[in-house]
């Protein structure tokens, strides 16, 4: 549960910056990471994002957990590019009568894509560590993201933790009754767990909808109202983007 609910934004200098400014900076850096043609900028962005995550109080174990799935994708992409893309042979191995050739230019392309993924993932994690989820949604609303998407995302974020708590309770009860003592029983128990959570999620959504309609909910949220920009934050952000843009051009 800690990996899902831990908010590392704390009370640092970065956490007090206007979320709209942070979101615009993150989007600008993301565009530069994805459009860069070298390794320097994605790796520099990744190092900056990881430093922000660790500096904001995120534990190293949680950071590794967040990078686990992207790391698997990066490894698979590098292997696919290495063995199936390219024209410059790097090495050749015969395995069970099959010639396996690794290509130098394919490896280069794979590492470039992996660097972009690393930079993008580190950047998004840094934004999440210094900005609460509700403030990110408010900034997206200011960017004219459809209000229905914002509303659904906020409700999903709110009730995700309740469903996770229900899943933990049901799983604990099943495990105490030896529900996972064998492969067959484990699959049946998992199916029961999944079905119960789907029913609970449906019931919760219907109850929440009814309760909010009875309280006169019309779709307007006070948290989506914004204060004016502060000139100092805008100036510092523009200087930061210009510096990162210079690195992007190198």
**Which overall shape is indicated by the principal axes computed on the Cα atoms?**
flat
Write down the overall mean pLDDT.
86
The figure for the number of domains is: 2
User: Level of helix content?
Assistant: over 70%
Distance, first to last CA: 42 Å
> H/E order of the elements?
HHHHEEHHHHH
The beta-strand count equals: 2
So how many helices? 9
Question: What does this 3D model show about the protein?
Answer:
With 250 residues, this protein is mostly helical. The chain has 2 domains: 1-131 and 228-250, no CATH class; 145-219, no CATH class. Helices cover 72% and strands 5% of the residues. The protein contains 9 helices and 2 strands. It has helices at 2-5, 19-35, 40-55, 60-84, 104-130, 133-142, 147-176, 183-214, 231-249; strands at 89-95, 98-103. It has a two-stranded antiparallel ribbon with strand order 1-2. Helix 2 runs antiparallel to helix 5 (104-130) and helix 3 (40-55) packs parallel to helix 5. The radius of gyration is 23 Å and the shape is flat.
């Amino acid at each position: 549960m800690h990996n899902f609910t831990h908010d590392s934004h704390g009370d640092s200098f970065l956490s007090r910056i206007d979320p709209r400014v942070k979101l615009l900076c993150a989007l600008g850096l993301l565009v530069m990471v994805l459009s860069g043609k070298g390794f320097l900028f994605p790796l520099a962005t990744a190092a900056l994002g990881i430093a922000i995550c660790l500096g904001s109080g995120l534990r190293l174990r949680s950071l590794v957990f967040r990078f686990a799935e992207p790391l698997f994708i990066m490894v698979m992409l590098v292997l696919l590019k290495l063995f199936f893309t390219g024209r410059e042979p790097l090495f050749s191995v015969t395995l069970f009568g099959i010639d396996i050739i690794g290509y130098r230019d394919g490896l280069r392309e794979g590492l470039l894509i992996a660097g972009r993924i690393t930079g993008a993932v580190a950047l998004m994690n840094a934004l999440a560590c210094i900005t609460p989820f509700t403030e990110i949604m408010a900034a997206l609303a200011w960017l004219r993201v459809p209000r229905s998407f914002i509303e659904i995302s906020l409700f999903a974020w709110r009730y995700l933790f309740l469903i996770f708590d229900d899943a933990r309770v049901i799983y604990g009860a099943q495990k105490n009754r030896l529900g996972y003592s064998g492969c067959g029983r484990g699959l049946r128990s998992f199916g029961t767990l999944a079905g119960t959570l789907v029913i609970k999620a449906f019931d919760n959504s219907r109850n929440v909808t009814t309760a909010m309609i009875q309280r006169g909910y019309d779709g307007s949220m006070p948290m989506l109202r914004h204060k004016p920009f502060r000139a100092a934050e805008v100036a510092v952000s523009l200087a930061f983007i210009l510096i990162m843009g210079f690195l992007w051009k190198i």
